[in-house]
Amino acid sequence: MKTNKYALKRNLIAFSFVVPCLTGFAAFYMLPTLRGLWYSFTDWDLFNKAHFIGVQNYIRLFQDKDFWTAMKVTVLYVLLNIPAQTILAVLIALVMNKAAHNGFISGILLTPWIMSNVVVGLLWLWMLDSSVGIVNVLLRFIGMKGIDFLTSTSAVLPSIAMINIWRNMGYTGLLVFAGLQSVPKEIEEAAVIDGAGPVRKLFSVVLPYIRPVMAFVLITTVIGSFQIYDTIAVTTRGGPVTATYVIYLFIYKNGFESYKMGYSSAAAMVLFAILVCISAVQMKIMKGNESD
Amino acid sequence: MMSKKLNKSDISPVLRLLILAGIGILIIVTLFPFYWVIRTSLTMNSRIYVDAGKLLPPSPTFINYRRVLGLVDATTSVALGGTGQAVNFLVNLKNSFIVAVGVTVFSTLFSAMAAYAFSRLHFPGRDKFFYLILAAMMVPGVVMMIPNFVFVRQLGLLNSYAGVMAPAFIMTPYAVFFLRQFFLGVNKEIEEAAYLDGAGLYQTFFIIILPLMQTALVTLAVTTFINTWNDYMWPLIVGKKNEIRTLTVALGVFRSQTPQGQPDWSGLTAGTVLAIIPALAIYSVFGKKIVNSVQFSGFR
Question: Using alpha carbons only, what angle is made at residue A273 by residues B239 and A49, rounded to the nearest 5 degrees?
Fold first, then answer.
């Protein structure tokens, strides 16, 4: 009986450690997620009473040309960003692994990543300016034609992808590098003894071995990439025309400029669902590795 | 640390040269934009076009910094290529500091308490709660953005520091997850000894555990500070008034003003450098911890 009372008291004290955390979690994570789901089934406009309208927001969303534009632009951006960034990251990791186990160099390569997207966006807005940006000044200096990096519909999305690759390549490179450290020397040596060249060794021994790390890298970068907003908000704001009108911009504009809270929440939920599917695929890849 | 010096025997000289060249290019590509923005911030607007390709700042000056810190009167500011609107990034710097420090101190403390409980203490539903928090890491920020905005508005906290800090003030799922990983590695015997000596849970936590976890706590605090410092979308919708605007938001506003059909490049780059300096200062002190924590997530 006495021990029970003692255990109860200890439980209560233990629980008091998580009370602030659970309160914050409930107020700013759990309830908002549920509320967001609820809003997505209403016609709420922030000022008038909300009415339940079933799945109408979702139906309208799928008929909304702007939504599809935003989806298309976002997916295109992810496709421009991720493959290039991943390949660069693997190259950086290999170089670091071969030659530079040097904290100082890693530190430099990570610098852009600790800067805000706003800062990075502004750095490159200035560097890539059509008339006075240094990149165009240099291009013209070597006799090439200048490029309207951020003001032409065809160049702008690759340019934004380039900006984010610049910011993130050191970070993803370091993640892959950490993964490479976990590859046992014996496995690599065995591959060399079996006559595998460096390229063969990379693709059939090293990369498969670090598959969990690669999956982690891909999932974080893909998810992050789908959520691009800040960089575009301070550079092109969706333009020229709709060339950088990504899904976050769609959600922001509908929610905070047109006050269509219900409609905007529905779009956020669709994005959520897409990201959950992508994560599920990643889990599968990681599971696949365990059974090897 | 895990340093393995360049091994001459297993790389050919040509490959070694290529690798060194690759590293050189990477470093230049990484650092040049920072140099270029500093160089421009030291250049007058009137020289920007004429001297667009000059590698060094033509007649370097700090006037742009004085201008964006509100130390120059409106007429002079217009003459130097500004909008003439009152710009005072000093206020925004202060706001960013208040918000970032507030969030860092409190969320680190509360997250540490929770992480300790989730890794060490026993109470009903412990693991269920933890998995719920883990699951929340999957929810994209924008899903919670509108409801959080509405909630903060209902609390009457729009345009206040409290409102800007609110969502991350008590905890972030990442912080709890990150710290729990470290708490799991703490030697149980140390706590048990303290406990047998009659120390209560709170005493054990604050006197024994927290000092032991210094490295992890500092790493998390630094990451939290930088993340909050860098945040844009949330302070943008909650702190619209200039007295509350953080520096990132103020920079966004400044960028959208185009006095001569072009942004005020000198002022904008000076403001950008002001935003870079604190992040860089912290990074140069704690860089190693950040590099290690990135590698830690790569090892997972």
Answer: 55
